[in-house]
Records
---
Amino acid sequence: MVKFIGKRLAYAVLTLFLIATATFFLVAGAPGDPIAAKVGQMPEQAQEIIREKYGLDQPVVKRYTTYMKNLLTTGDFGESIIYTGQSANDIIKNNTLVSAKIGLLGLLFQVTIGISLGMVAALNRGKPVDHVIRVLVVLAICVPSFVFASVLQYFLAFKWKLVPVFGWGELKHYILPVAAYAIGGIASYTKYMRSSTLSVIGEDYIITAKAKGCTKKRVVRKHVLRNAMLPIITMIGPSLAGIFAGSFILERMFAIPGLGFYYVKAVSDNDYTMVIGLTIFFAILFVGSLIVVDILYGIVDPRIRVAKGKK
Amino acid sequence: MSTKEVVMTEEWNESDDFKRVGTEGLSGEDIGEKSLTYWADVWRRFRENKLAIFGLILLAVIVVILFIGPVITGQNYQLIDASIKNQGPSSAHWFGTDDMGRDLFTRVCVGGRISIYIGLCCTLVMFVIGALLGALAGLKGGLVDDIIMRICEFIGNLPYLIIVVILSMVLGRSMFSLVFAMSLTAWVGTARMVRGQILQIKEQDYVQAATALGASTGRIIIKHLLPNTLGIIMVDITMSVPGFIFSEAFLSYIGLGVRPPETSWGALASAGQQQLMFYPHELFFPCLMIVLTMLTFHLIGDGLSDALDPKLRK
């Protein structure tokens, strides 16, 4: 296990290094002058000073080594080119939690509602409940989250004034974004839980349990649910890794000050240093959570542990 | 081998020592039903699925409308007319007009072509690269397999969305950069799937039999591996097209999609979003088209995977 984690960590560090390098050179080599908009009206000399401040007068390799040295020694993700005094570190420090809250809450709803609906549909296979759930699932999968968010915003917030249109800070601000974030996931968890439950119901041990005289409730709770949930648990991993990226649009639509909001803003502003810094941070979050998920699998499911041991 | 067989049967018939008894009235060897090829069988089962057929027809209708719609209305999708800004649906403008007075129906048709075109292009690139590398890894094994799988693992470890955002930012806003950025990460899934299938099929008895009979590698690939992986790949393709249309919509939404005056469903939805509070139809119609298209692909994909699943074969 220790060896496995060690190998995984070494691999992750290599991946992150490659991402950071590739991002830096790609973005630095992108067409256009990053500070053209800012210095456009300034006299020649002032332009020179600003270029010097951001190191833009130096060759790209030199900038890269300086950046990486700063990042590794002091954890400095870089300062915004567009907004003087704002750094990627500030945004990471202040806004990561906001994105995490939305993502985790959304994921919680996805898993719990999805599993329940999937079970209900499977246990009532062929009955009206099943049909209704299946139709809803197909519809929910086909509707992009931003469309769903717009519909919610229009009816719940604008027409009926039940919740604020956008904003951040209070509990009521969570309702729309979390609902919009969760809906697609609820649909796919329901879909998978339904088929997983159906395959479990056909297994011999369910018939055995029934033959032993277990009550229906007990069969469902102890035998069906537990076994049907195993494949679902493996789905949670990737969703966990994706929670920070999943709410990009929603953060923008609802004016939620999360990481995604600032990332999209930096991209549309051509704020190169911010894009590089936030990309690297996103990559760290993503790769990090993949590792955590991998390790957790090993602990949760003994079969995976055995398979890894064999290799 | 076949000549030997014939000789043996002839000897058998000539021999007077033995006589076949009790087989006269039996017709067990007769073929009861007309034999169907694999694909004919799949098509037969696909046809029985009413929802899937509905999806197929709806998709055809959508595509036809996208192409002949602008001809029927005779409107120009770029024509700006300040006097008819933000109008609701009417007989002159079926989907109404947008904030610059452009005919929304025509724009939805033109944008839809681009959305579907991008979806198809990305899927094609994903399929070609993924299937080739996956098949190569599965067949060659050893070092080649190792290298390809390492690359897959690396790309799989990247946050997909961010790669797409960075690439479209770096390459500029164009159709090419969109397709490139989206398919760059997408082929990994196809490659893994094809490799897994190939590894599985390679061990099957009929492939070993073919090898034992002296079939060349090329023949095995064309005759056995390809037809047997094609089914699962087709389902993957049907499910990928709407996925790419989704991604395109997302990128257009955050301003990284196609560059105006070109437009797409995502770009139209994004523009409509800004008018949502007062002119909801500008968001509604592009979204309706996205949703309908997604729905058709999902229905077709579900039908296909049911039709291809040997367990469901009657």
---
Amino acid sequence: MSIAVTDRTAPGAVDTQTLPGETGMVERPRARWLPFSPWHLLLMPTAIVMLIPLVWMLATSLETIGQTRHFPPILWPGRFQWSNYTATLRAAPFARWFWNTTVVTTVVVLSNLLLCSLAAYAFARIRFLGKQVTYFLLLATLMVPLQVVLIPTFLIVKRMGLIDHLGALIVPNLANVFGVFMLTQFFRTLPIELEEAARIDGASRLKILFTIVLPLSLPALATLAVIQFLWTWNDFLWPLVTIINNTNAFTIQLGLQNFQGAHATDWNLLMAGNVMATLPMLILFLAAQRWFVRGIATQGLKG
Amino acid sequence: MATAAASVRPPGRLRRAVASDHVAGWMFVLPSVLLIVLFGLIPVVWGFVLSLQKAGLISPSRPFTGLSNYQHIASDPLARTAAVNAAYYTFLFVPISIVLALFLAIALNQKIRLIRFYRLAVFIPVAVSTIATGIMFLWLFDKEFGLANFLFSKVGLGPFGYFDSPQGAMPALVVMTVWGWLGFDTIVYLAALQGVPAELIEAAAVDGAGRWSQFRNVVLPLLGPATLLLVVWSTISALQLFDEVYFVTHGGPLNRTFVPVFYIYRLAFTSSYGFSKAGYAAALAYVLFLVILALTLIQFWLGNRVVHYSS
């Protein structure tokens, strides 16, 4: 589904650690009629609106059920009812779902880093029979939306006996075209001289890839890793069709959906579950914000 | 991409080196290629074959029925409803999200205090899943106890029904999905803005261009490629809306949020149609694919007549 891949890698790299004023905008005198920049008048309300759903989720997760059924709504609970979290963990196997999602995501991310690197290196640096045709065929699949391949892929996975197993979520995602494409583009930008020197010294292709190319590609690998992590962790449609009856193999998204169905009006428990399901991704986002931003900016992608 | 290493080898070994390159190359790409062929390429072809069959997911035999699945689409009122709803959603979602993102990106490109906080606030929904977003907005838009109706009541409006009201469900979905996507679009615009060379703006300023003129004549044209990318990208994803509809509105009320992928899912994977409509679902999926492909080509064709790419 990811056609909109551009090669504008250079301007794509928004670095959130440096302020953008350094990258171009001409500094101008501040408007006189305000003690602060007028941009705050636009940005502060926007920031509040964007954060309200998250803050209210957190607030509700710490309220009693009585407080949630109150109008006007209670904006912030006076006393935090932490027991909502333990009650949620008792009411549904969140820990299990969490573990499943972690396993699936970890395996998929690591496998993509390895397999996509291998393939991308060959596409970027080795001349072999049928390379152009193969590369073109792979790229063509990028344009196909998920729903077109959904039913046949389901039938293939079913024939492999993976329905209702975590394998159904892992095996079809072990390598994806987007990763191959992105890394191929990146490897092509690396200077070839080091690799040539290593070849003359008798180093094998594998050794060159792992000791020279990959260490130079850490930004690209980090970008691929976080984007793949985001996709896999938050994926919904594919788990929905392949994990049907086995709640033990649910991912956190399927579990949340299931939990919502069972506790539709227990908003405090729902929000506690929602906080627990969302927090890992938020933490990762805060920790790796620049890789997320770079991944999105260069590839224009979200799931 | 000829291996430069081969060219520095003695001619006698050249043949062997090239021959081994074929093997080495295939060894490197084989795992990925096999996986992508099995789970990407074969399903594309098989999907088309399925669309020519009367097939269920669990039916043992799948007789060919020619183009009858495709013919059926034309006279299927639900397919029509899905198409109308998808168009309605797309017409709301694409312009709203892109225009908002443009404004926000310009604002977030300023060198002011708190800018990191503002950026974080706009970007952070990117990391939140569609299901988590759905739960949050079901709560915000709760008819009785929701924050939205409370805030509206403060200014004398409402109460509104949101996801429960036939008129309000689609706009509520748009608000929810714009919240989720805005960070994505803004990041793309911000990257484009930061790619605008400072010299160009300075040159325009030296030539006496005012701030608006600098923006209108220098910055905005350079945002063309990013805008085209976002229009194409948002249209594609808008036409494939599924998670939010499945989880939040279930296609309702009164089928007002019944969209194509939701229909495809129900036809193939639920008991609603007795698990017997996978062939028809595959045909619908292919038609949607062709519509998306056609729209993408048209958008790029139109866009390339307007958009200027800098060298």
---
Amino acid sequence: MQPFRIHKGKVAPLDRANVDTDQIIPKQFLKRIERTGFGEFLFYDWRRGKDGRPDASFTLNQPRYADASILVAGKNFGCGSSREHAVWALEDYGFRAVIAPSFADIFANNCVQNGILAVVLDEVQVREIMRRAAEAASYQLTIDLGQRRVQDDQGFSTSFQIEETTRHRLLNGLDDIGLTLLQESDIAAYEARHPVPAAAKQL
Amino acid sequence: MAEKRTLFEKIWDEHVVCLPADRLPLLYIDLHLVHEVTSPQAFDGLRVAKRKVRQPHRTVATVDHNVPTEPRGTPITDPIAARQIQALQINCKEFGVPLFDIDSPDQGIVHVIGPEMGITQPGMTIVCGDSHTSTHGAFGSLAFGIGTSEVEHVLATQCLPQRKPKTMLIHVSGKLGEGIGAKDLALGIIGQIGTDGATGHVIEYAGEAVRALSMEGRMTLCNMSIEAGARAGMVAPDDTTFAYMKGRRFAPQSADWDKAIAHWRTLPSDPGAHYDTVVEIDASKLAPFVTWGTNPGMVVPVSGRIPELSALGTEAERQSAARMLEYMGLKPGTSIEDISVDRVFIGSCTNSRLEDLRAAARVAKGHHVNGKVRAMVVPGSQVVKRLAEKEGLDKIFQDAGFEWRESGCSMCLGMNPDILQPGERCASTSNRNFEGRQGRGGRTHLVSPMMAAAAAIAGHFTDIRNWHFN
């Protein structure tokens, strides 16, 4: 997994709350059995008008946000379905971080698994970033995970909270399964105390 | 005196394998349910790392999301869906995972077949790469949805590093009125606390109205916990739970059964146990609900109207509601009963069990689906389908003009050919009314099975409390 330490990138504002994972990656793209190639389907329906042609008003279709790598959105981002494809699509598109007032639990977990940083800032700060990103062309933010800080070059600077275990994993790009397997003796001891039930063996 | 613990805390404590320094607690997973959509990349990950499935007998797979609901044996016309189903077959064979395949007499929606075969049991930790895994909490288990990386993690280690969630008690006092069921209770709760009202929490549902629910009703209620943002939903096991479980195929048998019951009786929360958040709901104040927007928190009683934008609290809420109404093709102030439907879907992991179909059939009996409406009934599993047919529900539905189909997730998320066309309006017993969920441009209104059946017949939403039952 790619470590996340300091990232500087262009910001795309998506001024909507409760963005669900059905919007981030619609169902018809979940049939692929690969982990890559989801970027072109990111926000598929929102990027297209009713006639199926690109909707120029949608944030990600605007040339000024073309190569954004930080997405800023409203509260409860990533709610709904557990589909990790949503994170794969964001990552494959080029996003390294999402900033929002809150995230749905499963989505936030999926981000960590893929080295994507979900930054929680309060509503006022999120609005301020959206305002700045809408006003200045090529508005950029720097996210420093080591220092837990988000800042731009024009005076905006704020710290953010993140759980220490999550921060450690992201900073070091650690393989979660490898870490769990370090506890092999604990797992084996647990399994010795809790054998597979007789009925389950009939499965 | 020992510390007073909640149902959740008892299960959590029992499943902590270890507390590694500087890392999250490692939780043991008793049961891992697997389906075709969120697992192929996980099995690939195992192959790349040369890992095995640690506990194949704690892993159960089925195909549900993609499967057509045409008669079995009809070729799958979507080659990508067929490839995904085939991938699961290959993966289960290679890694020794039991699979209830498309032609199995036990195939069905993963959240229907686990309980119905007695695989889901009180006190268990259960995960699945599917957010509606919360359904299984109805049995007093800790059950939650995970992403594909976590699916791989559980396949490889049978464990999951987990942040301990907060606890929320939703206490439902009083009785649900006639025609008002578990679905209405779930929608009423989400309408009250919002789609992120329980984020970071495990909900325990308790109180008179919850105790009175059947296991099917409890599953409907726990199923929708995720729509309030909860990590999981739970109901403490009781005699209703044990009566449902007894004799099921993979439930403990004979002496093991007595031992299991004795253990399960220790699980309910200790009186006076502390919850981080407490929500009170008065069941007697609930109505048959209909959603009007594009998230499950936008609920209104069937006797009500689409809210006026001026009644909403903030500018952001007004903008959001205006956008939803534009998508839904609705105007503020419209009476819910004046909204016509084009399609009706009775099914999904929320409402496709025998009790749901019985309730819908009771409404449909002796009536006929409105000429402008296409209505389909999709049983949750092959077992549900057979039991329903044994008591003649299929005949009631078909005589009334409903389509009677094979089991699967179907139009809940439209991964198979069952989808809405742009602009079509659907009364659906599923769990999500997100934009495009049932088909691009489709407009979904979430309702109970009775309300869905009544809408199919009337051609518009109608208050089930005034229904003429034959």
